[in-house]
Amino acid sequence: MVRGRSFQHCKACGAAVEYRVPAGDNAERAVCPACGTIHYENPLNVVGAIPVWQGRVLLCRRAIEPRRGYWTLPAGFLELGETLEQGAQRETLEEAGARIELQGLFSVLSVVRVGQVHLFYRAALLDVDFAPGEESLEVGLFAEDEIAWDDLAFRTVTQTLRWYFDDRRRAQFGVHTADIA
Ligand code: ZN
Question: What is the pTM of this model?
Answer without folding.
Answer: 0.91
